[in-house]
Each structure stands twice: as C-alpha cells, then as structure tokens.
Amino acid sequence: MTPEQIVIVVVAIVVLLAGLAVGLWVSRRKGTPPMPPATPTPPATPVAAAKEEEAKPAPVTPGQGAKAPPAAEVSDAAEVSEAEAAAAATSAAEPGAGAPSAAEADEAEPSVAPPAAAIETPEAATSRLQRLRARLAGSKSALGKALLAVLSRDQLTQDDWDEFEESLLLADVGAGAAEDILTNVRQTLRVKGGEADPAEALRQELLAAVNTAATRDIAWQGQDGQPGIILVVGVNGSGKTTTIGRLARLEVAEGRTVLLGAADTFRAAAAEQLTTWGERVGVKTVRGPEGSDPAAVAFEAVEQGLKQAVDTVIIDTAGRLHNKANLMDELGKIKRVASRQAPITETLLVLDATTGQNGLTQARVFTEAVDVTGIVLTKLDGTAKGGIVIAVQRELGVPVKLVGLGEGPDDLAPFDPAAFVDGLLGR
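Structure (tokenized):
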C-alpha cells in the first residue's frame, strides 16, 4: 500500500469515529439510547431448511379432493313399504350430515358447548282453567251485550225480537240455532210473565245450545299400553302449531310423557317452531328435511313413540287449504300410514274463533278427509263470533274440547260450557 492510500484510510477512520461520537452525544442529550446495529440473519442450516419445508402444506393436485364419506348402509329387509322407506330417509337426513370426519374432529380445537336451555314448568290444568274462566267471564262479548239489551226492554215488540235474532246471526250462531233460541226464550217469558228472569232464561237456552251428548274428554293414551296418537289439523294461520305446543305443555303439567311429530314439512320454519315449543318443556320432536314426505315423518314419530313408550304422540300436519285436493289426499295418507302401528285416538281440528262462518266452512272441508273427533277454538276471549261454538257442534256433531283465550304459552284449557255462556253474558 502506498503512503497516499494509507493516509486516505486513516482519514476515513477518523471521520467515521467522529461521526459515531457526535451521534452518541446527540442521543444522550435527547435521552434515547442509540439503536444497535442490525444483526445479520445467519443462513439457514440444512436441518432447519428441511423442517421448514416439511411445515409447508402439501400442494393439491387438481382433481384430487377429499374422499367422500361412505354412503349410508341400505337395509337388508326384503320388503320395505313406501312409508317405511321414506321414514328411513327422514331419519338419515339429520342435521350435520356434512359434519367432519373423526380424524378431522380430533384435529379441530375443542369448543365449549352452549349451556342447555332451562326447562319451563307449565301451569297445572286446574289453575289455568280457573284463570281462563275468570278471563272469559270478564270479557262480556258483544253478543251478550246485544241480547241482554233487547231483553231488558219493558215491552218486547216484533222488531225487538227481530233484533234479537239478528244479533244471534251476526255472532255466527247459525240460522237453525238462532231460531230455536229465540223461540224458547220467547216462550219462557210468555209463560212466566212478570216472574220470569230474562237473563236467566237466555242463559239456560244458550247452555242447552252449547251442550252436546258427545264427550269432551281427550284420549291422551291408547289401549293396551300403546301411546295415544293425536293428529292436529287446520288451515295455516289458525294457530295449529302453537296449539300443539300448548297441548304438549298441558300434558307435561299433568305428568304425562309426550313426543311431537313435525309432519307439516312444506311450511317454512314449521318444524323449527314446533321444536322450540318442545324444548321449552323437555319434549323431543321427530322431524325431517323441509319438503320431505309428511307421512314418513308421521310414521317415524309413531314408531319412536312406541319404542320410547311415551303416553302421547302429537302430530302436526299441513294446512294449505288453497290446494284442497292435494291437502285432503295428504291428510288421508298421513292417517293411514300413522295408524299402521297404532290406532289414531284423536283428530283435533284447530279453528280461529274470529273467522266465524269461514271457520265452519273449513271444518266441513277437513271432516271430508279425516274423522275429526274434537274442535280446538283459538282466540275465543272477547270475540263477537263466539256463536261458532254452537254452530260447529250443531252442524258437524263434533264437540269443542279445548279453547284458547290469550297469547300466553299456557292459555289453553278444556272447554267449560257454563264458563263460556257466563262469559258471553258477563257473569
């Protein structure tokens, strides 16, 4: 190295040292420690490189996906009925069919299960009947007001009696029943004269019109230890699914075991609604995929009810009245298929009391397809259409067995003719 080069190197070193000294002094003045020089990253060793390569995900070759889970095994039975085959398909189509395999589940991180929903305690039948009776008696419907207003007049003319009959007809009592009530009340007042109590005479005639020789008892249980099988029918919007949920609560309150069947497979969220009702009181629901065969679900529900030895199986059904022919065929099929394993003990028709004569028309349609054994009237409190109780029993010979008088989960109770009539008259 020449002397000139040595001088240049020395000068460069001096300048570098001076710069470092100045930077150190400035850093100390500001209170910030100087940044250490970056440490160069050492080259990866062959072992580390190999581990890193193994950690990388393996490339997926196009067309090579995960293997599909094995198909469900086919029953070895030589002969399987149409309903049994459909029921098997219903059972196989459980939620979670696309769940991960056991190996994938082992590799997945453990999840915390959500807390179980609290089981509600339904109100006992005795207390709810007393509560609903008081509510009905306090409603004093428009029908009772109109009839008592006419009978309270001093001298009843033909126009007054025409008004009396018109009030009965507007309440959907029906022409035949209205004429009988008017004739009998008028005859009682004429015979007893001034000693007659018009309100009591009206009460006795309404009781006679409401009462029926048919039993109002519900066959909750079958014969020889078999469960009672209850079909619930009615148009969409009448409160059919809600009524089934309330029926389940009524049975649980009485200490009976229940299984629900969600055979209304074509109405959106019907199965979810019924399942929610059941979960609130610890009752299980048999259901299938949306749009599946309703008869298959009914068959599966009865089969499970027999296996579990429950007291009652309650089956929801479709109510698409706009497609009358198909609906009637479907209801008939559900009844035939469900009764293969156990007899149908009850077929309850749910009617909205506010629909009046429309409800009577609906009742006629459903009785053409199935043998209706009882009526459940919803929204009965305070309605001016309470005469449907008289009309539907008179026209069809089917007793009203249960009534709903509110929006609460326990607002369903056995029908009490005396409480109903007293409610109409505000007693």
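The first helix runs from residue 3 to 30. The CA atoms of residues 2 and 58 lie 60 Å apart.
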